[in-house]
Amino acid sequence: ERLDRLNKSIGFDARMYKQDITGSIAHARMLGKIGVLTGEEKELFAGSLRFRRDYDLTHTGDFYRLISPWQNRTDCAWCFVSADRKEALLTYTVIRAKICTPRYIRLQGLDPDRLYRCTETGEAYHGDTLMHAGYCMKKTQSDFYSEKLHFVAQD
Questions:
Q1: From CA 96, how far away is CA 74, in angstroms rounded?
Q2: What's the pLDDT score for residue 133?
Q3: Which is it for the CA torsion 138, 112, 119, 66, positive or negative?
Q4: Distance of alpha carbon 138 from alpha carbon 94, whole angstroms
Q5: SS3 of 149, please?
Q6: What's the first-to-final CA gap in the chain, in angstroms?
Q7: How do the residues of the chain divide into helix, strand and coil, expressed in percent and rounded to 5?
Q8: Which run of H or E residues covers position 101?
Q9: Residue ranges in the chain modelled with pLDDT below 70
Q10: What is the 3-state secondary structure (H, E, C) of 1-33?
Q11: pTM for the complete prediction?
């Protein structure tokens, strides 16, 4: 009986976890603004919650290996795409940097007719553009550089 009472909210909690995380990040920012948390503590807290935001996508989404580290010794990339194709999480890692060569990563599994916004840059791209032309990794890369980008479909 005690266990039943404890677990009653699990269904609700599972449906509301994104709102809970968003609210917690906002609360951490507010605590940083008023001086309760240092800037470093605020970013550490918010960063750990952003990781939690991606947990569902990395555990239940479809996995795509975009650039294999076994076939290409300089870099690798993969992404997770949600079942409804509304979200994608792209991870790009440089193993050995090339000299000033931009890298276009072609995503897979997106809806070609949807517009996706990158939450890190604010830029918007059509799904077919991301899958056929690719996303340009613009930053200067060095050995062992890594970047994670979250794309969300716009309604």
A1: 5
A2: 96
A3: negative
A4: 13
A5: strand
A6: 43
A7: 35, 30, 35
A8: none
A9: 1-22, 24-25, 45-53, 99-100, 139-141
A10: CHHHHHHCCHHHHHHHHHHHHHHHHHHHHHHHH
A11: 0.67
- Type of residue numbered 70: W
Axis crossing angle, helix 39-60 with helix 10-33, rounded to the nearest 10: 150
Residue indicated by tokens 């990794």: 137
Which amino acid, 154?
A: Q
Per the CB < 8 A criterion, the answer to whether 61 and 87 are in contact is yes
* Secondary structure E strands in the chain: 62-67, 75-81, 87-94, 103-105, 115-118, 124-126, 135-137, 146-154
C-alpha pair distances (Å), 62 with each of 55, 66, 71, 96, 149:
13, 12, 21, 27, 16
Amino acid identity for residue 144 in this structure: F
